[in-house]
Amino acid sequence: MKTIVLYYSRSRKTATVAETLAEELSADLQEIKDVKERSGILNYLGASVDAFRESKTKITPENLNLDNYGIIYLGSPTWAGKASPAIITFVDKADLKGKDVILFATMGNQGAKSVIKRMQEKIEARGARMVNSFSIKTSGKELIEIKEETWKKIEELDLKIYGN
Ligand SMILES: Cc1cc2nc3c(=O)[nH]c(=O)nc-3n(C[C@H](O)[C@H](O)[C@H](O)COP(=O)(O)O)c2cc1C
User: Fold this and answer.
1) Residue ranges of the domains in the chain?
2) I want to staple 127 with a disulfide (CB 3.0 to 4.6 A). Which of 59, 97, 148, 164 is the partner?
């Protein structure tokens, strides 16, 4: 069974964590995109409201066949203390029966713990179990520092044991 890293990212931070995981763990990588325009300061408030309400959004790809994967990494930024709408939308439609999931969240400063808790509830409702999780603070950090933080997490949590 293979490993895949799935993520949503608006400003490349969660993407950097996801790409580093995929490189280090020789896993497949798949970005989940939000079709709704989320860039720019004007969309920030709308994004926060959508996340806070757990509103659904339109995503691409709409569906993913995860049959070949036993281990799934799933990552989201923290928005208004919640997971991003793209990830909530994805999880609520995904067939995760029997999958081992490792959740990760990035945050500016706070809120990732409740994001992970909520994502855990959501994946469990879809038949998966969370085998590990971690979060990374990104405020004031360059992408290379986020990459270094990810390397540290891989070491600390011994993520290479969830191998292919
Ligand atoms: C709409 C919006 C809401 C956010 N809300 C929070 C928050 O509640 N707590 C926090 O620590 N960071 C918050 N952030 C910051 C992001 O979680 C953080 O910068 C994250 O690492 C961005 O990941 P990305 O580059 O993958 O999109 C918010 C960012 C956006 C765009």
Assistant:
1) 2-161
2) 97
Which pLDDT band, with edges at 50, 70 and 90, does 148 fall under? very high
What spacing in Å lies between the alpha carbon of 108 and ligand 1's midpoint? Answer: 5
Mutate to test the pocket of ligand 1, among 78, 82, 135 (most ligand atoms within 8 A of CB): 78
Looking from the CA of residue 146, the nearest atom of ligand 1 is: 21
For ligand 1, residues with CB inside 6 Å are: 9-15, 44, 47-48, 77-81, 106-111, 138
pLDDT digits (tens, 9 = 90+) for 104-147: 999 999 999 999 999 999 999 999 999 999 999 999 999 999 99
DSSP-derived secondary structure for 77-139 = EEETTEE-HHHHHHHHH---TT-EEEEEEEESSS-HHHHHHHHHHHHHHTT-EEEEEEEEE-T
Longest CA span, the chain: 43
Multiple choice CATH, 2-161, 3.30.360.10, 3.40.50.360, 3.90.1170.40, 3.30.750.24:
3.40.50.360
